[in-house]
Design a protein that fits this description.
Ycf51-like protein, 4 helices, membrane, alpha+beta, single chain, transmembrane helix, Uncharacterised_Ycf51, transmembrane, about 180 residues, 5 strands
């Protein structure tokens, strides 16, 4: 038996049960039954459970796994339309686009809003280079722009910074030779 993981299904069934209990409670009060206050408590409890399941369904994030993406960490997020994620300097060029797509899917939420009149959410991907001991230089490898209003955005604009990738490869070659 397959159990649904979509919380909206549970919210619907909990709401239906709450309404049925409400009708039975109203009937118990009209008929003056002795357990009417217990039914009122059960109905109130079910209303709280229904509201909680509904709120939980709004707050859970859907994390997608895109093949070829590597692990990233969020280093900046203004909560509106910009974010920066960091990856290891050992990233391969073929892993940049899938990692950007995964970050765009995972960081999307309905609460974001566009500033500057633009309805785009921009995520930049960066790594750190260490040209000398004690010195770190951020190097941006790419960015993705996606819609703020639609979770399913088929028109994401991906930009790969090839000159920075060349600089990363050069730094990797230097670290291997030394």
């Amino acid at each position: 038996m397959k159990i649904p993981t979509d919380l909206s299904t549970y919210t619907q069934w909990s709401g239906i049960l709450t309404l049925v209990l409400l009708l039975i409670t109203i009937l118990a009060f009209i008929l003056g039954l002795g357990f009417r206050f217990r039914l009122f408590g059960a109905t109130s409890f079910m209303a709280v459970v229904t509201a909680s399941i509904f709120a939980l369904s709004l707050g859970l994030f859907v994390h997608t796994e895109i093949p070829g993406a590597i692990r990233y960490s969020l280093v900046y997020d203004n909560g509106a339309n910009q974010a920066v994620v960091a990856v290891s300097p050992e990233i391969e060029e073929s892993q940049i686009e899938p990692t950007l797509r995964q970050a765009a899917n995972n960081l999307y939420s309905f609460g974001r809003n566009g500033r500057d009149g633009e309805n785009k959410f921009t995520i930049k991907l960066r790594t750190l280079l260490h040209p000398e001991p004690g010195i770190s230089v951020p190097l941006y490898l790419g960015q993705i722009k996606r819609s703020l209003s639609s979770r399913e955005d088929d028109n994401m604009q991906i930009e790969i910074f090839t000159q920075n990738i060349a600089q990363l490869k050069e730094a990797q070659a230097k670290s291997v030779s030394s």
